[in-house]
């Protein structure tokens, strides 16, 4: 069951949430890249997951959350209405 929750937050708080989610995207995308290539290019820890595909799915999931927040907050395309 995936119920919808409506929140009322100051714009600054929403920006902080988006920033935190962006960091999660970067970590999962880095993990996916590491699992595919074996290269270590940033000082990120490798997240625990089954394989590169799972890591990429998680990065994509966080990206979808950010898109949804930005659309609902009017932050998409640089607008803030």
Q: What would you say this structure looks like, in words?
A:
This protein is mostly helical and 81 residues long. It has a domain at 21-76. The protein is built from two helices and no strands. The relative contact order is 0.16.
Short characterization:
The chain has 81 residues and is mostly helical. It contains two helices and no strands. The protein starts with 10 loop residues before the first helix and ends in an 8-residue tail after the last helix.
Write the layout of secondary structure elements.
Layout: H1 11-37, H2 52-73
Helix pairs in contact: 1-2
Number of helices: 2
Which structural category fits the helices and strands? mainly alpha
Kindly provide the radius of gyration, computed on alpha-carbon positions and rounded to a whole number of angstroms.
15 Å
Order of helices and strands: HH
Separation of termini? 31 Å
The dominant shape is: elongated
The major pleated sheet works out as: none
* DSSP summary, beta strand count: 0
Mean pLDDT: 91
Poorly predicted spans: none
Binned, the helix content reads 55-70%
Spell out the key features of this protein.
81 residues; mainly alpha; 2 helices
């Amino acid at each position: 069951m995936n119920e919808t929750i409506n929140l009322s937050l100051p714009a600054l708080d929403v920006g902080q949430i988006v920033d935190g989610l962006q960091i999660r995207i970067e970590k999962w995308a880095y993990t996916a890249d590491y699992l595919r290539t074996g290269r270590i290019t940033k000082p990120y820890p490798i997240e625990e997951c089954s394989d590169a595909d799972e890591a990429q799915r998680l990065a994509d999931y966080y990206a979808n959350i950010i898109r949804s927040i930005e659309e609902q907050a009017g932050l998409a395309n640089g607008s803030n209405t």
